[in-house]
Design goal:
The structure holds 2 protein chains of 2 kinds.
Chain A lengths: L1 H16 L2 H22 L5 H25 L1 H8 L2 H7 L5 H35 L7 H25 L4 H16 L1 H10 L2 H13 L9 H5 L6 H28 L4
Helix pairs in contact in A: 1-6, 2-3, 2-6, 3-6, 3-7, 6-7, 6-12, 7-8, 7-12, 9-10
Chain B lengths: L3 E12 L5 E13 L4 E5 L6 H8 L7 E6 L2 E2 L3 H4 L2 E4 L11 H11 L4 H14 L15 H13 L5 E5 L7 H16 L3 E6 L2 H7 L2 E6 L2 E6 L1 H8 L2 E7 L4 H6 L5 E3 L2 E7 L3 H10 L3 E7 L4 H9 L10 H5 L1
Parallel strand pairs in B: 3-8, 3-9, 6-7, 7-8
Antiparallel strand pairs in B: 1-2, 1-4, 4-5, 9-10, 11-13, 11-14, 12-13
Classes of the chains: A mainly alpha, B alpha/beta.
């Protein structure tokens, strides 16, 4: 079982890293991190804040774009090009193993990408400040949260791609990301309304992943410490939410007829 | 124990916006293929061949009925390691080289790591791609991809090989190579189930064939026997209008091109036809057996015929 999931994950990773689009996005993200140095130059006294804000936002945004872009195609491309037939048709691969392999492969790709972008980010930071401070450790926590966001987005994109077209999956996944980013505001809005609107807003706020809880960029830009409790709850939340998404993806995928 | 066995296997799809309409893709299919047999699954495009193969591969679920391969249920993982499958017009991960692709599939099929290189070398040689193993598949021609497709179907040395239209889109040389390969696999004792809409492919390779049209199995048996049902005819060409009446008396409907006449008759009337031409002082030009094309096979005889050798749905139900 582990061998088969591993093989599918490695193939997914290999497919992603051999795709030129991915390199374009990673290079673009690193360029933005680099360009934030220039913005820092013209913002006297807050160079570090500008760099951290822009740099981490770029890593997060490009990672999400890659997660959606590749995630929505993970299953649909295999069906469309019939590569799935030779994997599931005549190999002892169970459908849930395929889903899990695909998820692991893309998550791995995103972690490696985030790693490269983070190296660029820390190089820019070192260039700017000439040394690392103790508070810079929180940047790693912010990066960890960004990776957790990637896990959530990948699980969502994969879920949508098991029953929808790539275009619709992309729209769904991106909408979930946008709404999830404002989940806290949505809860606030629900508190201010009454009746059906209140329940609709509250339901939606609980349904979408609460990406706002993972965004600590402005805190770490100001060297505000991140509590261990938040790390624990965010980790737990991301794992649970991703598990639910993947379980739903498996249930849908198990029932599908590949016409 | 049959290598492949289906019992009243059916597939219907829900279609339309509200998915309320039912489209029957396959009607009660019951057939058995013995081990070591090469079975041709014949039918025109859209007949239900791919539907049957997808049902056997577990890619779609049957609406009714059941299927077994090597005596096991079609979802059994052990059984899955014993079969190979080449889909119609295969497309593979084009970011991989042929070697990487075969390594991937061998891994999924449970071929131990230490044996994989040797198996890949053997299989690439077998499908005549020994030097192309390090080229990415995106640079492969259609014929090469088809060979890679066959390579992936046999990389794990399966007992049964399913091939969906293995010769479609290939040039004459490619077709012959694929035919030779199937022949070689047959000689090794593999069970081969392949679908085609080309009768000559089936003729040269198959022990038995099943003919499917519009989702129904129309007949099953040895191809020559099936063809005899609709064939056994000759085309006779002669020169001279004097024999026309006598030929019409034999039941022929002659077509004239100037003084040249041609007519199709059943084989047993051949001697009588030759006599009629001689007696009427006409000149015999040629006698040719009528080759049945698959199209004729369906159009002439099988279009609305009830299944011949398979049990009816009622019989199965009993």
């Amino acid at each position: 079982m582990r061998q088969r999931i591993g093989a599918i994950a490695y193939n997914t990773f290999r497919e992603a890293v051999r795709d030129r689009v991915l390199y374009n996005l990673v290079v673009f993200a690193i360029l933005i991190v680099g360009s934030s140095l220039i913005f820092g130059e013209i913002s006297i006294g807050i160079e570090r804040q500008i760099l951290v804000n822009l740099g981490l936002a770029a890593i997060s945004l490009f990672g999400v774009v890659i997660a959606i872009f590749i995630g929505i195609q993970l299953v649909s491309k295999e069906i469309e090009k019939k590569t799935l037939y030779t994997v599931l048709g005549a190999r002892p691969v169970r459908r849930w193993e395929f889903i899990l392999g695909k998820f692991t492969g893309l998550t791995g790709t995103l972690v490696v990408n985030a790693g490269f972008m983070a190296i660029g980010f820390f190089a820019a930071l070192l260039y700017l400040t000439h040394h690392f401070e103790r508070a810079d450790g929180y940047l790693l926590v912010a990066l960890y949260f960004i990776v957790l966001q990637f896990v959530l987005i990948t699980a969502l994109a994969l879920l949508f791609s098991t029953f929808s077209t790539p275009l619709m999956s992309a729209i769904f996944a991106f909408a979930m990301f946008v709404i999830g980013t404002f989940a806290e505001d949505l809860r606030g809005f629900a508190g201010m309304t009454t009746g059906a609107t209140k329940y609709a807003a509250m339901g939606l706020a609980w349904l979408v992943p609460n990406f706002a809880a993972f965004n600590v960029i402005s805190e770490v830009a100001h060297s505000v410490p991140i509590s261990g409790q938040l790390v624990f709850y965010n980790t737990l939340y991301a794992l649970l939410y991703a598990t639910v998404c993947l379980s739903a993806a498996v249930i849908i995928f198990e029932r599908r007829n590949f016409k | 124990m049959p290598a492949i066995e289906t019992v009243a296997l059916e597939k219907a799809y829900s279609v339309g916006f509200w998915r309320k309409k039912r489209k029957q893709a396959l009607y009660s299919l019951s057939l058995a293929v013995e081990e070591g047999e090469v079975f041709g699954y014949l039918g025109p495009n859209g007949a239900g061949k791919t539907t049957t193969l997808k049902l056997l591969m577990g890619l779609i679920y049957p609406t009714r009925g059941s299927a077994k391969i090597l005596g096991r249920d079609i979802s059994d993982p052990w059984m899955k390691a014993q079969i190979g499958f080449l889909p119609e017009q295969p497309y593979f991960y084009d970011h991989l080289t042929a070697r990487e692709l075969l390594d991937y599939y061998a891994g999924l099929s449970g071929v131990p790591g230490k044996d994989r290189k040797r198996r890949i070398d053997e299989v690439l040689k077998r499908v005549a791609l020994p030097d192309a193993g390090h080229t990415q598949l995106r640079k492969y021609s259609k014929g090469m991809l088809q060979r890679v497709g066959i390579a992936q179907a046999i990389i794990h040395d399966p007992k049964i090989i399913f091939l969906d239209e293995p010769m479609s889109g290939l040039d004459p040389i490619g077709r012959r190579e694929v035919r030779d390969l199937i022949q070689a696999l047959k000689e090794e004792g593999k069970t081969i189930f392949f679908s085609t809409h080309i009768l000559s492919d089936a003729e040269t390779l198959c022990d038995r064939v099943g003919v499917i049209n519009k989702g129904r199995l129309r007949g099953i048996g040895i191809l020559a026997d099936l063809a005899r049902e609709v064939s056994g005819k000759i085309e006779i060409v002669w020169h001279g209008a004097s024999a026309r009446g006598a030929m019409e008396y034999l039941g022929a409907k002659p077509h004239a091109t100037g003084e040249l006449f041609r007519a199709v008759l059943s084989e047993e009337k051949m001697d009588a036809a030759i006599d009629a031409i001689r007696k009427n002082s006409a000149k015999l030009v040629s006698i040719t057996p009528v080759r049945v094309t698959l199209e004729q096979f369906f159009l002439d005889k099988l279009e609305d015929e009830v299944p011949t050798t398979i049990p009816s749905e009622e019989e199965v139900a009993k």
